[in-house]
Design goal:
Elements: H1 2-21, E1 23-34, E2 44-45, E3 50-51, H2 56-68, E4 75-80, H3 89-96, H4 105-113, E5 117-119, H5 129-136, E6 142-143, E7 147-149, E8 162-169, E9 172-182, E10 198-200, H6 203-216, E11 221-227, H7 242-248, E12 254-257, E13 263-264, E14 270-271, E15 277-278, E16 282-283, E17 286-291, E18 297-308, E19 311-323, H8 331-348, E20 351-355, H9 370-383, E21 387-390, E22 402-405, H10 406-412, E23 419-425, H11 426-438, E24 450-452, E25 455-459, E26 468-473, E27 476-477, E28 483-489, H12 490-493, H13 499-503, E29 512-516, H14 517-521, H15 527-538, E30 540-541, E31 549-552
Parallel strand pairs: 1-4, 4-5, 5-6, 9-11, 11-12, 12-17, 20-30, 21-28, 25-31
Antiparallel strand pairs: 1-18, 2-3, 7-10, 8-9, 13-17, 14-15, 16-17, 18-19, 20-22, 21-24, 23-28, 23-29, 25-26, 26-27
Helix pairs in contact: 3-8, 4-8, 9-15
Length: 553
Amino acid sequence: MFAKRSLKTMVLAALTAAITSGTAFAGDLTVFSTSDIHGSIIGWNYFTAKPADVGLAKISTLIKEARSQKGPNDAILVVDGGDILQGTPLDTYMVQHPKEWKTHPMFDAFNTIGYDAIELGNHEFNFGLDFLKKAIGKNKNVLAANVIDDKTGKTWNGVRPYLMKTVTIDGEKVKVGIIGTDTPAIPNFEDPSHFAGVHFVDQVPVFKQCIKELQAKGADIIIGITHSGVPRDDRAGSENQVVDIAKACPELSLLICAHNHVVIDNKSGIVGPDGTKYPDSVINGVPVVESGKDGKFLGKSVLTINKKNGKWHVDKVATQAISVKGVADDPQIVNQVKPWHDKTLKHLQTVIGKASAEFVGAESNHQDSAIVDLVNEVQRHYAGTQLSASASFNTSQNIAKGDITLQEMSGLYIYENYLYGIEINGAELRKYMEHAAHFYGKSPDYNYDMLQGVDYTIDMTKPEGQRIVKLQYQGKDVKDTDKFTMAINDYRMNGGSGYMEAMGYTNGKKPKIVFDSMRKYGDDGQMRNLMIRYVQEKGTITPKCDHNWNVIK
């Protein structure tokens, strides 16, 4: 009896102390986040036709488990950081067959899982605003505060700048404001016709304004989602604004980022563009988290909060990226997407031609190869240029001897790029190639362009800017005044990876255009479609490597 009375007295005393100190309610708000899912719904690699540890079906399994274990004093939110509608052949099938569907399977999966907020990524603008509106459908939780309507000067009406979610913590209502913005650098790598009617503004002032508005509406906690990342040397600061946002907006309790396809959490830490280290991935007191790509990881941010003197405070935030490796697909998501998955698989088995021998993708990102030479030959063929530049986009994709299927072509050229032919001089060509040499052997390897049509040597023992030690066209040294035409994709043409800037084309200036595949072929002018068309026209292709370049290490 004495023990029971003592325990009761202790509990009452603790409760009285909590009330007196102003801290009576506490619990955890867990924010699960994904980013750059790129059309991966089930655990399947469409390019290799094998199971893979990717996708929203595995994410769903983890979230369902977390919800089943949620404590009575805790709450859960689920958000996505964008790049949804491009990436897998399933996504491509939806683009090519828009009349077959009313709701997009990616958003169907988001809705089934129960996402609270979804931010647009740059790839959402690959196919025009009409397609994007159809994909969004009736969803009211899609964000992009800095996508501005040209006519109204306000956030585009297809999305919202922010939303307010009310959750329950320890029996108390907590208002959580969620702001979403997209990288304003979209015009640097997207055709203007794809976003006609809107423009993109700097994220920092938009974040600051949204924070003010949410605070005025009574938000207790504010979370940010940005489809941009930590600045890095291959992408301009305007493209990746995480550091700037965190420094300008200490009111944020959490900043979820995307776009760079990396994992950021307490364990990883962050190194800023100036070399500044941010231990635990916390910038200016703002915890930052990113969960890679394709649904390989699920971001988990646990905000421990309590109420002090009538106001909610975040005491600490723990972030981690949870791997989906070995996690089973949620059958509900699998069954939901199965009709589109089956249609995609069937479509990918369409035979488009033959290969007389195998084209090997391995090591094509750092040495001359028949498979990249094929891409460059296709680019030169349709653009009608002397030269061509291309990266290796998927080193795991081969073209087997025998029948060539759409699956192999989809795996070889995995982006929705268009093709340009431009006119440059010898000095600009050398600058382009020096810039490419800067990326040799670095990740991500899609930044490293290999050229066809000239013979050259890269000496990696030389200082940057002096690494192209041999450069010849048809057996003669290239002069600064020589004129050339060169094929490149629209990502490069619009500033991707800094190649245009390296040649001196800044402030909207661009080289003379001699070919534009979109103008000539429309949607059929995408490089993947041109690759398919080339094989169909040739009937049979043979692997050839001209060994026109080498590297001294």
